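Cross-check.
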Amino acid sequence: MELVKSAGKRTSLVSEVLYIAFNLGLAIGTFLLVLFGVPVLAYLLVMISKWRVFAVRPRFWWANVKANLLDLLLGLSVVTMMLQAADLHLLQLFIAVLYALWLIILKPRSDRGSVLIQAGVAQFMAITALYSIGFDWPAILIVAFMWVIGYISAQHAISSYEDKDVTLLSLAWGLIVAELGWLAYSWTIAYSVAPAGAFKIPHIAFIITLLAYFAARAYGIYAAKKKLRLNDITLPAIFSGSIILIILIFFNDISRG
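Predicted model, tokenized:
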């Protein structure tokens, strides 16, 4: 029995080391491919890294695809953000480090708090990546991609609850994000986080993140109590609303995208 336990521990340790090595390699690989000017291969690397989605019987493919959409969304967003930080190698490296932390530390966690954080982080980065490259795209494309981002993020977050209306609620949140994306298409303000404005974060990413925080708090309270009172959501509403007002009133002219 002790021999079986010892072998099990060794197998688990080897699996964990291989998992960390694989994900470090993925983060380093995307960074180097972007650094050396072949971002197409970086995008392909992220997509190929999801090969295990189809390493099961076909009847499980769709379930696996849905479970991995958020991670794929974040990976593609990371490559896009590194690409937009061209010539800012330290910033690209910083983004790659964040990606490695996502893959090794945050992504494997399945508790509800971590799942909600995963959804929020991926949504924020995806919106930032989209507006960094879509400033001259047709409005319909921005709206469509914003809907996809909202839907994937909401589906991931709500899946941590036992709710039979996951799809309906995800579609609703996707619609809200798409509408806000349409508004931001004609009124995009971006805040520089690098010298000479070489890399910017759009204000709509902050606004939607704050709204998502409020929605998540309200939904969490409703899921636990099966009812929602004004007192339950007053503080989250004040917190989110106050910061959004500060962004809209005081940070409108800092840096226009």
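The beta strands are 190-192, 200-202. The chain has a mean pLDDT of 88. Passed to J.P. for a second look.
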